[in-house]
TrEMBL record:
It comes from Pontibacter aquaedesilientis. Keywords: Heme, Hydrogen peroxide, Iron, Metal-binding, Oxidoreductase, Peroxidase. Its EC number is 1.11.1.6. CDD domains: catalase_clade_3 (cd08156). Residues 1-26 are annotated as: Disordered. This is catalase. It holds the Pfam family Catalase-rel. InterPro entries: Catalase, Catalase_3, Catalase_AS, Catalase_clade1/3, Catalase_core, Catalase_immune_responsive, Catalase_sf. It comes from the Bacteria. SMART domains: Catalase.
Amino acid sequence: MNSENQPAKLTTASGKPYYEHENSLTAGPRGPVLLEDFILHEKLAHFNRERTPERVVHAKGSGAYGTFTVTHDITKYTKARLFNEIGKETRVFLRFSTVGGEKGSADSERDPRGFAVKFYTEDGNWDLVGNNTPVFFIKDPKKFPDFIHTQKRDPRTNTKSATMMWDFWSLNPESLHQVVILMSDRGTPASYRHMHGFGSHTFSFINQDNERFFVKFHFKTLQGIQNFTDSEATVMRGMDPDQAQRDLIAAIERGDFPRWALKVQIMPEAEAATYKWNPFDLTKVWSQKDYPLIDVGVLELNEIPDNYFAHVEQAAFAPAHLVNGIGFSPDRMLQGRILSYPDAHRYRIGANYEQIPVNRCPFTVNNYQRDGAMRVDANGGSAPNYFPNSFDNIKADASYKEPAQNLGSNVMADWFDRNAEGENDHYTQPGDLFRLMTPEGKKNTISNIVGAMQGIDGPKRAEIINRQLCHFFRADIGLGLGIAQGLRVDVSSFAGGTLHAN
């Protein structure tokens, strides 16, 4: 650490202190630059790599940290631990964004606004990735690349094209609900603080009794709704293209912390099949007369990140990131985003994007992911990188298993045991194969297995050998005996299972 009277030394990225930060090494005062000046190389090479690939959508954004506080009891609907106690606080990070605009576009463009919240819970990070609208333009993920192409630049002129946009919308009438919202003054919010946020998709709540409810999330701004008219938004684009970013920072710095009330709509699972609209259609809302808003808590933003790139630009949200007590639904767009969002982050900022501080779970993380570019932790040390194994104590906790989901027509979505009754005979066919071999073939097979298993070492050697011998014995007693003898294992302890005799 440096005292106030001792300035910090200028160093390279590897920690070497150096002096010449402004002048290049040259052959004489007016001569060419020499290849030897590695400080010059480091500065220019890093400069060339300072920009990560721009997000295809939601490229321009603003973000802040804050807290979510539970104000009402919803534990009869969900066992998610962040909701389990009135007054409980959970740290959050919220990123606002425009959707179709590029990194340098104006904040006041007519566009939906992204509203993505990361909750840092003790059961992992929950990402609620939505917009400032409760619906979207399309209902099937196969349509998404085509739709976004119409919001970007014409491949011939490289300009935005009203023709592309309206051509797509006119050919896809399901977009009309969102188009009407977009073309109203709600399409040009006056600031991020003065708009609502929505999870938009239909999700699941699962309670302690493993009952499933379908749920929609609403964040209601406590600052009140304020929108620009079209002419006001046009003027603002020229006056200050970063107006929403500037407004958010100024409000938090003066202590005027933006707040939203989180509310939910709850639909019992059985009612989904008979509701007048498809409850999983992202172009539709649920009537609040049918499913009134239920109060949950308050989200407050109170901390501006000290470095925009480290926190806002590297923030990565994915609808796949849920926590115990919150699940998916048959919403097709949600199903598509489960794949596409994490895939986009792995491309943009790397396979280990969840180790970046803004994305990292602050609580326990145990898994078997290893290696990859920019791995910044101990990479699992010497622990095994496969499961199951005989060495670590990581166990799958059955209390986190989700209930099966009824998809209708007697079809259940569940994690079915691959070795359930009727699928668990792993011994008859290997035994039959061994018994078909010639005496020489049997001898060679046993010899080859013995040779391979002799390489097993370490404190778990006997355990692994004995476990595998049980499988061989169940397939064929002669196979098991031959291998046991080759490994010099006492077979008197092997009594379980149905054994085949030669």
